[in-house]
Amino acid sequence: MENSKINGKSIKRFVINNNFVVAFIILLVVSALLSPNFLSVSNFNNLAKQQAAALLVAFGMLFTLTTGGIDLAVGANACLSGIVLGMAIVKWGWDGFGGLIGAMVLAVFVSCLVGSVSGVVIYCMHLPPFIVTLAMQFSLRGLSNMISNGQPIRALTETEAYKMLVSFSNPNAKFLGIPIPFVFVLIVAILLGFVLRKTSYGRMILATGSNEETVRLAGVNVLKYQISVYVISGFMCGIAGIMLSSRSNVFSPTAGTDYEMNALAGAVIGGASMTGGSGSVLGTIFGVFILAMLENVMNLMALPPYPQQVIKGIIIILAVFMQVITSRTKKE
Amino acid sequence: MERRKKNNEIKVKMTGIKKVFAGISVLDNVDFELRKGEIHALMGENGAGKSTLMRVLSGVYQAEEGEIFINGEKKNMRSPKDGIDNGVSVIWQEFSLMPDLSVAENILLDDLNSGKKIINWQKFYKRARAILDDLGYQNINERARIGELSTSQQQVVEICKALSRKANVLVLDEPTALLATQEVKKLFEILKQLKEQGSSIVYISHRLDEIFELSDRITVLKDGMLAGTVSTKEVDEESLMLMMVGRKPSELFSERVARIGDVTVKAEKLCRGKKVRNISFEARSGEVLGMYGLVGAGRTETVRLLFGADKKDAGEIYINGEKAKIDSPKDALRYKLGLLAEDRKHQGVLLDMAIRITSTLSSLKGYTSRFGKILFVKEAEAVKKICTSLNLKYNNINQHVSELSGGNQQKVALSKLLLSDCEILLLDEPTRGVDVGAKIEIFGLINQLAESGKTLIVISSEMMELIGLCDRVIVIHEGKVMASLDKKDITEENLIKYSMGVTV
Questions:
Q1: Among the listed residues A161, A169, A155, the one whose alpha carbon sits nearest the alpha carbon of residue A99
Q2: pTM recorded for the entire structure
């Protein structure tokens, strides 16, 4: 956190605390060996662009995990955000730069609202987060389908707002050589990482996850922290939904499917505990990329889809196992 | 009257036991001997090695050096099963019962079906019933779920479990910590009965009165080494303390000039369910007010009401003369109250986080910039300063609280209160599970705080503590205040009398 010298002992401690880096490197090397196309700029560029939305969703999941909660509705929430965006731009005709901004604000607002509903239901009605957000997931999918009539919302005429939205995902849309969506994710990651590690808010959400009662008896308003992480998650999903629509050029009610599982696995591989009290933004990034690289190299090797899923499951178990083993070593 | 049987026959002999953890010797060349038909007390500060020694005896740990003889035969204890097979049974403070299974199933856990393939339930319950009746516990139902029994009844089940395993060496670790006075008496009766029948009992405890009543011999460990083994009849409290810690009891409490001021906190007719029934009391600045009572009398519950940790059904709280609305710990903090919770591991500290995080939990605002960023340097200074003043033994403020000893963990919990600048401190069993050295420091701290004008309310089950520390003591019995004792009236006799509900 503060001052630390770099020597053999601290390197060892770094490796134990950040074993996702080790896993990442191992996977990198193995992938490069398994497929010659893996180590190419274009492959990595693609990988980075694809993971932008997934990363944001994973950050949202990370924050809900820190307090000991979980948000299984993140994928569905992102989807709803995309649908709301589509409704505004395509069906209600919000146009121009102002229209686009307005539509995006609305979409993110709805996602935040959804997040706050989850948070309030969980912590004011004292219900388990797993069940509540699972139920949310079903409801939100249903809602998305209801609004869009079960079909992707397509822009029949390409309005200015629409064109602007899609242009964000243009391969040439770069800022200092990095694709715009990824620049955005980088900024968010730095911000969230700072909040988690260096601010009182970040400390309190981790403390709440570590032991809610101790924090409560210390005079802290735990409810505030427990609910707000769901709003943050909602916010992340809102933006993720916008990105997904931008990339796929449609506003689909099936967007974000299975995103919650990848987000959860990524966050946990990156050090988050399902009981709360730990986790890091950097770790989550590595975790998400480990899963993405895995899928990527399996695709390059032309492995059929079903064996891919089996292998993915095995790798997740191995990665989490390594995670748990090293945290036990930390305790001794 | 002791019967002279084969009183000198040695049941267990441990010689030269050495146990090392992470490079530190927690036991070093310890000898321990247990006779047949003996109650042998094992004493020492927290961390002296008592539990470790018993874990070595029962096979949970393997010693690096040393030998164990049972009935004269050398034994290799490689696992808990070896311990059980050799007749050694340990009843730990936390119990190892299965709350959802029945009493009988817990008692006969090792031998559910007498070697056959299918359990004969009729015979099964009969066997358990016989063991319970043998000890005189006709009122414990062998079919009842463990979770429904009281703590003392669960303890009886543990003893039955040990007996069903044909244990003739019984080890009890702090058995009376959670028992009420009558239950303690019954336990003693059972132990004496078992002793008469030839069992050997190791009794680990901090409570001198119990040790003097029960034991034949006492072994004292200090810092992992044998300080000595003495016959109970030939030793007194002072010499025991000297063996344990190198200090006499009179040196435990420092002098304090009581400068008692105005009433700072007043509780009026507090009620909550059946636990707190119309409790009223007041405390002043510069005063140490004690709260005594049996386990479950309602002291913790009362203090929690004061702190807003639980919602009160009725009653008022006045702070410095003004009516106070305290509905949550956050409110309490605003009125400058602080709570040192009874269960420090789950309510007092964050075990898996850095010391500094627990220390500044109530006062983080003071170390945060306007934008929410934590001012780490300022925080570190404050935390180090308070830890030094508390004489907290730590490596660095970023290490996890779980790595500290019990006494030091308690100091971390205390640092949280001190940094929050509270004026009225509510301390619930502040020295429970704390070694004597740290106890003395905590007593000194309490006196210091009182001298500086703070108000302290101390809940304690150790009469000696209350007698030595408090200006006044209120005694609680079944949710009601039985008496308010001024300093001269704080005696063991009065404390016991009122805690049991006697009103004269």
A1: A161
A2: 0.77
